[in-house]
Amino acid sequence: AGNDLIVQLTGAFWDIHSNVAPRKDPGPAELLRTARAHRAILKAAVAGDLNQLTAAIETHYKPIRVRIRQMLERR
Q: Is the separation of the CB atoms in 69 and 22 below 8 Å?
C-alpha cells in the first residue's frame, strides 16, 4: 500500500515480540489461527472496510500482546 510507517511499526512490534516473548515451533492450531487471522485482515482490506480491518488486526495481535504482558509481569 506504500505506507512505510506501517511497515516500520509492524517490524518494530515483531522485534519486541521476538525478544520479549519468543515462541518455539508453533503447533498446527496456532498456525491455523494465524492463517485465519491473516485471511480476515486481507478480506477486510480488499473490501475497503476500515472497521472490519481494525477489528481483524486487533484480534490477530491480541494473543501476542497478552504474551508480552505476561512476560513483562514475570520479570
A: no
Distance CA 31, CA 10 (A): 19
Q: What is the 3-state secondary structure (H, E, C) of the chain?
A: CCCHHHHHHHHHHHHHHHHHCCCCCCCHHHHHHHHHHHHHHHHHHHHCCHHHHHHHHHHHHHHHHHHHHHHHHHC
Series of mean pLDDT values for 10-residue runs along the chain (75 residues): 82 81 80 93 96 94 84 82
Tell the residue number behind the cell numbers 519486541, with chain if given.
16
The predicted pLDDT at position 1 comes to 59
Rounded Cα distance between 27 and 18, Å, is 17
What whole-number distance in Å separates Cα of residue 17 and Cα of residue 71?
A: 10
